[in-house]
């Protein structure tokens, strides 16, 4: 059954050019990092590329303190807005996401949220771990609705530049592997973090230089193991059984 919002999104889809590019991601999955690398690839290719970057109703709180309607993600599950678009879907292990997201909304905002503990945030059905699972599953079901869909994983990006090169092909950028590899090396997390600390990171607000107050935080696969207790990990592992196997998490 379709809602009035679905109808509006269907109409909205025609306000975008056919094959409009979107990069869709849940917060704290590496979008800032990937965006900088995409910008550099576009510059190197001397091509024009228009990409819309969106968290698609998954974001709880913005850095300027605006609190979003957190129910929208659960109320509207169709994605007709993207039906004529090419979508890049960036994902990361939900256990690493939830830890980084907790630090984001409790520290990196002009009006941060407060929770009694990370454990209570993780278990919050609307804001916590379940929100990530729901968002990933929602997009798995909608991926055939769009004109083209490209999944890119944070863990693959951390490993090497191969997935970035595959993305350049998806974007139809005229750029060779050697140049992509050079761009990848120039955007290693250590260099990105150094730029942020110096106030040189584009579109980044400073909330302090403590690691948990940075946009570029730890950039370690599996860092949740050092920040969650075993009960939290067990809770997340149980919830992960509800995640579609497509993501291989």
Overall description:
By secondary structure, this protein is of the alpha/beta class. Helices cover 43% and strands 8% of the residues. It has a four-stranded parallel beta sheet with strand order 2-1-3-4. Helix 2 links the parallel strand 1 and strand 2 (51-54). The relative contact order is 0.17. The mean pLDDT is 88.
Shape: globular
Residue stretches low in confidence (pLDDT < 50, at least 5 long) are: none
**What letter string, H or E per element, gives the SSE order?**
HEHEHEHHHEHHHHH
Distance between the termini: 31 Å
**Strand elements, count:** 4
Kindly provide the radius of gyration, computed on alpha-carbon positions and rounded to a whole number of angstroms: 18 Å
Average pLDDT metric: 88
> Tally the helices: what do you get?
11
* Spatial strand order of the main sheet: 2-1-3-4
Classification by helices and strands: alpha/beta
Descriptors for this entry?
249 residues, alpha/beta, 11 helices
Task: Produce a short descriptive summary.
The protein has 249 residues and is of the alpha/beta class. Helices cover 43% and strands 8% of the residues. It contains eleven helices and four strands; from the N terminus they run αβαβαβαααβααααα.
